[in-house]
Structures are given as C-alpha cells and as structure tokens.
Design brief:
This protein has 221 residues and is an alpha+beta fold. It folds into two domains: 5-95, Beta Barrel (Ribosomal Protein L25, Chain P), CATH 2.40.240; 102-184, RNA Polymerase Alpha Subunit, Chain A, domain 2, CATH 2.170.120.20. 17% of the residues lie in helices and 39% in strands. It has a six-stranded mixed β-barrel with strand order 1-3-2-6-5-4. β2 and β3 form a beta hairpin. The radius of gyration is 30 Å and the shape is globular.
C-alpha cells in the first residue's frame, strides 16, 4: 500500500436537526458501524473529507482516527442536498483488512474515440467485485482509443485488473457479454415539407368530402 489515507474524527453527541449547527462550523456529521461493534456518531472536517473522498472514492481504505483509536473503514454512503448538491452526512463501515469483501467498482471510459459516424456506448457503469479491502480497484478504465471499427466490443473478461487478487462477482456466462460497444450513429432523416399547393383545399374539395346526406340537404336549399 503506497499511501495510508488518514482521516481525523471527533465523537459527536449532537443529533437530529441540531446538526445544522455543526455544518455551519465546517463539520460534517457522520456515522461509523460494522464488524459487530457498536455504531458511533462522529464529525469530520468538511474540507478534509472532500479532498480524501475525491482520491479514494468508495473503494479506498481510510484510516479513521478518533482520539487514540485508529480503524480502517470504507465510505458506505454519502448523502447530498438535492438542491445545493452539498454534503449532508457520511456513513462509514469498518472493515477487516484480512477478510475479503464485496464492493461495487465503477467502469469509466478514458481517452477519445475518433471513428467517424460512431459512438462508444457502455452497457453498464459498474461491476461488483470481491477482494481484500486494500486490493479493491479504484475503478475499471476502458481505453476508448482501442476501438477502431463499428461493431467492435469489449467484454468483462477483457477488463484489465489483478486477477490473483480481485474476483468479479458475476456468473461465468456474464464474462462474455459486451460492456462496451462501438455503435454506428444513425442520422435522423427529416420529412420533406409539403408544398402549400398540396394542402390548399378548394370549396369543391370541401363539398366532395361532405357526407352524402349533407350534400342532399345542400341541394334542397
């Protein structure tokens, strides 16, 4: 492990609506649970957590320091304000570094594909894997530049990762299914405008379109 990501925390007694006071002070309400240990309410520094989360995401091990205690955790859930898109609360889960766990790992496209008239499409944006917490991939990257022909695909079996440490938590037949496809972009053909002369309706054509009974009434008049 090249970098040990440490995040300091403080025990929290304030709960409910009162946590708004914490946010105004730059503190982020959070909770930590797991490994059959008591759950704990804590606060984190808004800025420190934001920077660290940008680096490790939901699959990077964080060493949570609360007082003299240090424990490895993963980010389990991040709650955001739907309007302001600001952090409201973070849930952390304790992990045993010697036991494998399952986690959802994002699949991302990198690079630009320059095949004319084509678009690269992902059929899924994440995949569940099993690994030790410290071996979890940050993400799976798919190089868009390797696609050179329309119809070319890439499957789960083609993903690059350490197969000795990481296992994809899918059925065997899923490995052969495409997760990225270079598809042809079909241009939509707009219907040609109808000439004004073709839509002009004369008095005679109107009369011809009238029901027979209506035409008889006109003759009586």
């Amino acid at each position: 492990m090249s970098n040990k990501h440490i995040l300091k925390a403080q025990a929290r007694e304030i709960k409910g609506k009162q946590v708004k006071k914490l946010r105004r002070k730059g503190l982020l309400p959070a909770g930590v649970s797991g490994l059959n240990l008591p759950s704990a309410d804590i606060t984190l520094n808004f800025v420190d957590f934001g920077k660290l989360f940008d680096q490790v995401g939901e699959t990077g091990v964080i060493y949570l320091q609360t007082g003299d205690q240090e424990e490895p955790v993963l980010v389990e859930e991040v709650q955001l304000d739907p309007i302001k898109n600001q952090l409201l609360h973070v849930s952390l889960k304790r992990v045993n570094l010697k036991e494998k766990i399952t986690a959802e790992v994002q699949i991302e496209l990198v690079g630009e594909n320059d095949v004319t008239g084509a678009v690269l499409v992902l059929t899924r944006d994440s995949i569940e894997v099993e690994a030790l917490p410290t071996d979890l991939p940050e993400k799976f990257e798919i190089d868009a530049t390797q696609f050179t022909e329309i119809g070319q695909t890439l499957t789960l079996a083609d993903l690059k990762y350490d197969k000795d440490k990481v296992t994809l938590a899918v059925e065997a037949e899923e490995l052969a299914k495409p997760i990225a496809i270079l598809q042809e972009v079909k241009e939509e053909v707009e219907p040609e405008p109808v000439a004004a002369a073709e839509v002009e309706v004369t008095e005679e054509s109107k009369a011809a379109e009238k029901p027979v009974e209506a035409q008889k009434e006109d003759k009586k008049d």
